[in-house]
Amino acid sequence: MNITIICVGKIKEKYLKSAIDEYTKRLSRYCKLSIVELGDEKTPDNASEKQEVLIKEKEGEAILKSIKDNMFVIALELKGNMLSSEELSNFIMDLGVKGESNIAFIIGGSLGLSKAVLERSNYKLCFSKMTFPHQLFRVMLLEQVYRGFRIISGEPYHK
């Protein structure tokens, strides 16, 4: 299975890079993982709603260019479906059974995802109603994907 994480923003913090490297190494046993980092647009203080929409649209264009036609796209979205770790594991397994072997997870920038990206997505997933920094969220997503593959494989990790 091919897992691609398309994300807006660069990781600057060493501790986050270290965690991402660790989960990338762990996941290499289960899937081919690619991480596509896209630049984020600068958001001015007190940006108007129109400015925010334009920023999301510009970031969205870059995201859409990174999505291949054969990808099953999962947008990380506050209004998406909330799944337990077991449910996410089953969801990934079911996609594989159905022949969807190229899965892309999309993490937007600080303002979220554009309407066009949400329309292109096949599924919308919400981890929590809480707000997380998108750099930290990348680590959280990798951990949950790793946990999912461990559950699929029947290996100890998930408790």
Automatic annotation (TrEMBL):
Pfam families: SPOUT_MTase
Any one GO molecular function term: rRNA (pseudouridine-N3-)-methyltransferase activity
Major subcellular site: cytoplasm
UniProt xrefs under SUPFAM superfamilies: alpha/beta knot
Reaction catalysis annotation: pseudouridine(1915) in 23S rRNA + S-adenosyl-L-methionine = N(3)-methylpseudouridine(1915) in 23S rRNA + S-adenosyl-L-homocysteine + H(+)
Reported function: Specifically methylates the pseudouridine at position 1915 (m3Psi1915) in 23S rRNA.
The protein's assembly and partners: Homodimer.
Family to which the UniProt record says this protein belongs: Belongs to the RNA methyltransferase RlmH family.
Protein name as it appears in the record: Ribosomal RNA large subunit methyltransferase H
Species, as recorded: Clostridium tagluense
